[in-house]
Amino acid sequence: GINAEYMGVSRRSTMVAHLPALVPVLVFFAASFTFTDVVSGICMWRMPKPSPGWPPLPNQTHPVLPDVGFELIPYNDNGSLPTNFLLVLILATAAYAFIGTDSPSVIFARFFAVDGVLLCLRSITIISTSLNNPDPRCNNCGSVCPATMWGCVWMTVKKFPFFSCGDMMFSGHTVHFVLCALVFHTYYKGAYAPAVHVVAWILAVLGAASLLACRYHYSIDVLIAFSLTLLVWGYYHFQASRLASGKLAAALPGAAAIEYVERALGTVPEKAAPAMPCKL
Fold first, then answer.
1. Rounded CA gap, 270 and 244, in Å?
2. Which residues of the chain are under the pLDDT cut of 70?
3. What is the CA radius of gyration of the chain?
4. pLDDT digit string, tens, across residues 73-127
5. Closest CA to 262 of 82, 67, 21, 98
6. CA-CA distance, 134 to 194, in Å (whole number)?
7. Lowest CB count within 10 Å: 158, 168, 225, 266, which one?
8. What are the C-alpha distances in Å from 230 to residues 86, 97, 226?
9. Rounded-to-integer distance, Cα 219 and Cα 234, Å
10. How many CB atoms lie within 10 A of CB 241?
């Protein structure tokens, strides 16, 4: 339920009423984003050192892993291409949430809750194994990055626009491509819904392809990001749907947090019982 008129309150009142959900979700997202930023700096510091004699691309000085995506998609040195796709999708998603719905705070709370979880997962995977970076722009990271790990972290955190090397598995860009497409796929129910859904997914897929073209990521980074984003989004909405129908949240990880957010958003009927504790 994201229709403010159904709840009998104005749009502005709805936003204010949803602050108990929005504030902790945004704090969680900001903490997750900052943590990922720090871990990305560590990944840049420990990136494999260049090894001359392996030039699969112009000025490439370290080995690039064999990749089907690189074999199918020609190299493009326009490094801003993925960012442009991401900007279009984020602006379109924000515009739809603010203009096309009566209660954008519900969409934003769910979006950033899922995003924060995925950023936490990404922080774990990118530091677990350091893959050779296929992006030629990362060739001189060893000379640019300070000698100490924390110096490299600080350089990464303070740099804007954000740029890092060595944080391969999995793709943060792809997470946001897919999240934006999922907002339209899940919530847009207008007359042109099928066409809007197709356009959103085409933009998401093109954005992911641009990452391969610019050699920002390997194909596996994109595929894992695509799969995990679908999984976490589906899990959150599975729990939210159970709560909205008056059922118990399934006793799985994160159930209590999801229930708190959904109750604060006003989507849970009063008769719904609290979530059972997760037992693993």
1. 10
2. 1-13, 15, 48-62, 139-147, 159-163, 249, 270-280
3. 21
4. 999 888 788 888 889 999 999 998 888 777 888 899 999 999 999 999 999 998 8
5. 21
6. 36
7. 158
8. 17, 20, 6
9. 23
10. 12
